[in-house]
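User: I'm new to structure prediction. If I give you an amino acid sequence, what do you actually give back? Let's try with this one:
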Amino acid sequence: MNSKTIVGALIGTIVSFLLGFLLYGKLLASFFAEHAGPAGNVMLGDTEMGASNFIWIIAGNLCYALLLTYVFSRTNTSSASAGAGTGAILSGLSAGGFDFIMMGTTKLSTTTSAFADIGVSMVIGAIVGASIGWWLGRGKVA
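Assistant: Good question. You get back a string of structure tokens that encode the predicted 3D arrangement of the chain. For your 142 residues, that looks like this:
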């Protein structure tokens, strides 16, 4: 990876972290708590979240952004619009794979929460993908 892809991944990490906090942590937290699976709401509360939790959340966002940046670099995705489309598709498919396997093997989610998670993941993927695609396309002549 060159410096442009590393910076793209860092931008994607920040955007993903902020959107995840806003959408999952604030706007939709009560929705996902209400639509938890038979195991009940297993999310950590605000008072239970410590610095070590945020390290893992940031690590997850970094892995996600690295995946998108790697795919974009290999496929020459270098515009905000191409990044948004590819990011939404990759995010929706990976969220669907994860959510459906979790539904089949655990008691953590419901059909409603799984499909909502896929939709939210696609929105986040589109915005993160757009930011990475924009960065990777900077300075390229159309």
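You can read the tokens as a compact description of the fold. Here is one thing that stands out. The first helix runs from residue 3 to 27.
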